Amino acid sequence: MNYRIITRIIGRILCVEAAFMLPALVLSLCLHERGAALSLLVTIAACAVIGVLLALVKPKREGFYARDGFVTVGLAWIVVSLFGAMPFFLSREIPNFMDAVFETVSGFTTTGASILTDVEALSSGLLYWRSFTHWLGGMGVLVFVLAIGPITSGEGGNAMYLLRAESPGPQVSKLVPRMRRTAMILYAIYIVMTVLEAVLLLCGGMPLFDAVTTAFGTAGTGGFSIRATSLADYSSYCQTVTAIFMVLFGVNFSIYYLLLIGQFRRVFKSEELRAYLAIIVAAVLIIALDILHSYQSFGRALHEAFFQVASIITTTGFATADFNAWPELSRMLLVLLMIIGACAGSTGGGIKVSRFLLLIKSGKRSLAQTLRPNSVKLIHMDGEIVEDPTVSGVRSYLVLYCLIAGISLIVVSLDNFSFDTNVSAVMACLNNIGPGLDAVGPTANYASFSLLSKLVLTVNMLLGRLELYPIIILFSPSAWKK
Amino acid sequence: MKIVIVGGGKVGRTLSEQLAREKHDIVLIDNSREVVSELSAELDIMVMYGNGASMHTLQAAEVGSSDLMIAVTPMDELNFMCCVIARKLGCPNTIARIRDPEYHEQLYFLREELGLSMTVNPEWTTATEINRLLQVPGFLKRDSFAKGRVEIVEIVVQPDSPLCGMRLPDMHRHLKVRVLVCAVERGNSVSIPDGSFTMQAGDKIYVTAPTGDLGELLRGLGIRSRKAKDVLLIGGSRIAQALSSMLIRSGARVKIIESSPERAAKLAELLPEATIINADGTNQTLLNTENISQMDAVITLTNIDEENLIISMYANWLGVPQVITKINRLEYTDVFRDKGVDCVISPKQLCAQSIVRYVRSMQNLSGSSVITMHHLVNNQVEALEFLVTDSTLNVGKTLSEIRLKPNILIASITRMGRVIIPGGSDTIEKGDTLIIVTASDRVILDLNDIFELDG
User: Are strands B25-30 and B370-376 parallel, antiparallel or unpaired?
Assistant: First the structure.
């Protein structure tokens, strides 16, 4: 394992984190929030100093392979989260360190689960930083470093492994031959869309701070809001804009690149996109009909259903209604949407629509082969053949996912909350949604869980965002063996 | 530049690696799924699965908007087709690998009619390179620049050589000719030496000298320069065939040992003046029967690297003056250099090198483009030839005034046909051709990249 290169990359990431904290510091200074400003300053200094020291490490050999990529991603996210939690902890706005880490990891992994009982009591600087972690974690910390960082000769090859390890989805492909340019294009699209949403929200009368933090939360499909009532108190226009953008951010970014270069036919061929949109439409209709009796008109019900479906399937987690109070059909449907998740190659979480499609196709093939043992069937996706290693990879992923969910459930149940609470808490964290049902519903928070549960849920959030392997590798002894 | 490469074999892979390092956008097409998944994980390029001659695949690879298409599949005919179709789709430059000697004769016609920019024939290139080495023995490697006027040659400092213990500035006094040591390989490390460097036995030094002075250089070093008269080739491959024709034409006596009876018969038919032996070249008794120890040169050309290495080591041990080994997998050459197998030829590397040189010459950046490029010391050092133009900085200054970036050396200056091995008081003028030697981890695309920026 090439520890030196790993150290150097983590150093660079810390420097990036320090730089990104600066706007929060400036905001706190302008608003005379002494405590927040001081803690931000200390954190920025610590990140910068340690980051620069680590980044100066010179590699002794150039080898950097898949294993190094995974370890780098896992370690980087943990380090970034720990440092990112410091402003909250040092300023005493979140006095318990585990709570601060939970909140920060929830930010970076774009989960949006909160332990705060009173969001609006937080200083603006910290509220900004909290929402910004969504934005940075959404597209990926490492992708950012790849896109803008200085490159030395060896890193062309390293980049591939890093991108693969951090990017969600069963198959990661590049947009253009060079990895760095792919990363830059992704971030460019990401930035443009974020700004667009913020502008549209501003036009709807939302205050600047709210618009910016909401845009951050949407872009990363995170879900942190600066209001205790999430997005329930904003105008219908703002809610609709947010809902539409949530759906947009849940689409594979390669689609946007294809649109940009004019390849519309390939966009239509994307089965994942079609399935994603179909699921959304179906779910919205079913839920709207189900909750009709609670609302004045079909239009209102449709609006609420659309927002929630968009929020849950993209694993964002904003809420405009207490869906915990909705009928069972809607609740169950929402839980199912939580698990399915958004498209691969987007900022959303969950198992991903493409994996589900592959599983279904693989299931159909198994059925056909049981009926006719000698038949040879290949699995196609978007007109191309999907190879067996990819398919079995998806199956293994699902098995691992269930195992992790199961173990987490057992540990969390120690706190003696209800079945609904436990299952939805684990699901919400593992799939990076945020709010669940019952005691962790959209109007509640995660504050009452024990330290152990919070730890387990934090690990779940990391596992979910990084798609299991980078974190598991950190704990597996064989990864560290020569 | 956007480059499409068809064929992910040895040459395709080497090319992709090298060109991706030089920041080109590469798309590689191969019709094996394993190769595609392997290479897409290892290299910073786009890899596609498909048939390189199919229009559909080439269009998906955006050949029409690419600058260059290189076809290096194992089949000559496929390479032709890829290039022709690429041309028709709008790619301005195409390079095809053609191995079959039968097509070699019609190469000129093929290039003209089919619009190929360049053809590469690895076997032919290898044979030519070996032939050049055999012409002037004593050097492990020769690379020529400035239209053949200057060469960088590789020499081993033998224990009994007068160079042992000599400091670089003293070389001039001992040898009658002006030369420059531009790189040294000692053990595993390569460096660009400065004036305080002292040579030791076992060092491999890279010396820049005017071509005409090479003979004098050898005499000054006490190395006997005798053209190889009796040459033994182990393995009757296409390279052996091409090499034999060249050697026979220059009056050498050639003996080929080939293990396959059919191939031996074919060779006997094609090369009536050579002695063809049908036997196993790894058999020591046979080699002794054929007087291996009395040969002037032994060239191992079988398809198996390991056999070539063993036979070469044996020949070295016997004291054969010149032993040249063909190796496909270059990763282990460093290991064998200490054992005396230091003159190594790799067909895929020569092929890739000539293509990369062509690519470099296609890039006309601000006029200071690379004219020639060679890799030395197993790819760790590069020697580049540049033309000094109006846009070059520091024109008219003396070398002692100019500050170069670290690990870069100006190895020679050619001015109006005259070769100057530079010292501190020499200047660079417009119209000069410079040879720059640098460590390979730095890619120098423009002559101005070598200068240390002031301020």
Answer: unpaired
Distance, in Å, from the CA atom of A214 to the CA atom of A223, rounded to the nearest integer, reads 8
For B24, nearest residue in chain A (alpha carbons): A178
Task: Tell me if A157 and B44 make a contact (CB, 8 A cut-off).
Answer: yes
CB contact under 8 A, B441 and A66: no
- Mean residue pLDDT across chain A: 88
Residue with tokens 């549209």: A200
Amino acid at B122: P
For residue A203, which amino acid is it?
Answer: C
Question: Which amino acid, residue B60?
Answer: A
Alpha-carbon gap, residue B327 to B306, rounded angstroms: 8
Give yes or no for a contact between B140 and B405, defined as CB atoms under 8 angstroms apart: no
Sign of the CA dihedral A10, A12, A15, A21? negative
Are B44 and A387 in contact (CB < 8 Å)? no
Q: Which of A63-77, A357-371, B431-445 has the lowest mean pLDDT?
A: B431-445
CB contact residues (below 8 A), chain A span 210-249, against chain B: none
Closest chain A C-alpha to B307 CA, distance in angstroms: 30
User: Longest Cα pair distance anywhere in chain B, in angstroms?
Assistant: 70
Min distance A182 CA to chain B CA atoms (Å) = 11
For residue B27, the chain A residue with the least C-alpha distance is A177
pLDDT reported for residue B428:
84
Cα dist. B333→A421, A464, B379 in Å? 64, 46, 11
User: Of the candidates B37, B44, B441, which has its C-beta nearest A179's C-beta?
Assistant: B44
CA distance A388 to A467: 20
The CA distance from A390 to A331, in Å, is: 32
Backbone angles phi, psi at A421, to 5 degrees: -60, -50
Tell me how long chain B is: 455
Residue for token digits 């490159």? A151
Please give the ipTM for the structure prediction.
0.71
Orientation angle between helical segments A328-340 and A271-290, nearest 10 degrees = 160
Give the residue ranges of DSSP H helices in B136-208: 171-174
On whether any CB of chain A is under 8 Å from the CB of B91, the answer is no
Tokens of A175: 């947009």
pLDDT value at position A161? 74
Q: A380 to chain B nearest CA, in Å? A: 15
**Helix, coil or strand: residue A468:** coil
Q: Which DSSP state fits B453?
A: P
Question: Are B25 and A177 a contacting pair at CB < 8 A?
Answer: yes
> Is A153 an interface residue toward B (CB < 8 Å)?
yes
